[in-house]
Amino acid sequence: MSGTYQEKRKQFYSQLDSFWADLYNEEYALYDTAIIKKQELEQLHLASNRIGSIFFKIGKLLRQVPDQTLMEMGFPKETLAFLRVKTLSAESLISRLDLIPSGNGYKCIEINSDTPTFIKELFYVNGLVCKEFSVKNPNEHSDLFLSGQIRKAINELCDKQANQDPYIVFTAHEDNIEDRETVLYLQKITGLPSKFIPLHKVQIEKGVGLFDDEGNRIHLLYRQTFPIENLISDEDGKGNNIGLWLLELVEKGKLDIINPPSAFLLQNKAVQAVIWGLHMENHAFFTKEEHDWIEAYFLPTFLEPAYFLELGIPFVKKPAFGREGDTVEIYNTEGKLVHADSEKSYTDYLPVYQQYIEHPKATFSSEKGKQEGKLLIGSFLVNGKASAVGYRIGGTITNNLSYYLPMGLEE
User: Fold this and answer.
1) Of 122, 136, 244, 289, which is most buried by a Cβ count within 10 Å?
2) pLDDT tens for each residue of 278-297
3) What are the φ/ψ torsions at residue 95 (nearest 5 degrees)?
């Protein structure tokens, strides 16, 4: 196809139904592909499975620790009972690991286990871009696996409720295209009888249940993009704590949600400090093989910066709960601030300190011409199993202005 990059990009993405190729009036989805070797893809899946197993194992431990420990990790007091609820066999139905290629392997900087985005891009759009560029899709058939696992999870929750005809509602902020279309995509591929209802139209009755705008009782709420830490401060026009009411419904078994409560437990970045602390003690909670995996794939992470300051190691300071690079700061070997994200929305949360490592650089085509950026890999776990993968590329801190770079597989 002849034409400039801008023309070809516009022609391609304009054909895609309900996709946000541009965000914040800026280019988001690139008309380009980065090719990954088959062996590298296999390593990526292997690393993701191992990292996921460590996170999911620690979830079982954290549900048993005292309330004080959870509060010291930065969990709001209002969520403690909710955190101990286990509704699904998997800790999280859909989670995304953020990985940095390092040496011959990968380092995990965090897990987005509660409300991960980047789903429609990797499970759907990536395949269309690969077809456009005549390259193999590394995420082939991942959408079929995803839809099957969502149905399996919903069936598991409904069987537990002994409800033969559950009312399933998918919800999101209606005015946010990324949130809305991600949820509508998941609803579509799930293929179960359900309804999409915008978040502002969902009604709650304290201690009784959740209802749609016509007064019908909702049994299962799929809220892929609405974080629990935001939910707990949610109030209605009368000042009622409707977010906390919703958590109480889940605690009492009057409502099921996906992702489940256990996913919020792992969303806290302080969990990585717990994992690293147990690893430094060579604690018997982890097997020797698991300790090897932690050493290979995890980064030193603490609730204080002393370790890095004493050893002269560059580090990142980030909020226990936070998204899109917001409130992230990078410090050099002398402990001086060298880079900070301009957004400061999460300053009230407990800070977590993690060793800083460089992202690999890559060049890519864009509407601004050839650019060089820093790569971050998003690697999905679906019901705990490695699934779709893809690249974000941008600045030193990956934020909501970073690009989506489609990934192709070397034949």
Assistant:
1) 122
2) 999 999 999 999 999 999 99
3) -130, 155
270-280 and 288-297 helices, crossing angle to 10°: 130
Please answer whether residues 130 and 408 qualify as being in contact, where contact means their C-beta atoms are separated by less than 8 angstroms. Answer: yes
The Cα 318–Cα 269 span in angstroms is 8
Does a cis peptide bond (omega within 30 degrees of 0) precede residue 282?
no
C-alpha to C-alpha distance for 308 and 356, rounded to whole angstroms: 10
Question: What DSSP character marks residue 121?
Answer: I
CA distance 125 to 45: 20
Pairing of strands 168-170, 403-405: unpaired
Tell me the β-bridge partners of 98: 110, 378
b/e sequence 385-403, b meaning 16+ C-beta within 10 Å: ebbbbbbbbbebbbbbbbb
Buried b (16+ CB within 10 A) or exposed e, 73-86: bbbbeebeebbbbe
Q: What DSSP string describes 334-390?
A: TS-EEEE-S--TTTTSPEEEEE--PPPEEEE--TT-SEEEEEEEEEEEETTEEEEEE
Cβ neighbours, 10 Å, residue 409: 18
3-state secondary structure 203-272: EEECCCEEECCCCCEECEEECCCCCHHHHCCCCCCCCCCHHHHHHHHHHCCCCEEECCHHHHHHHCCHHH
The whole-model pTM stands at 0.96
pLDDT in tens, 148-173: 999 999 999 988 877 678 999 999 99
Q: Which of 31, 7, 47 has its CA nearest to residue 379?
A: 47
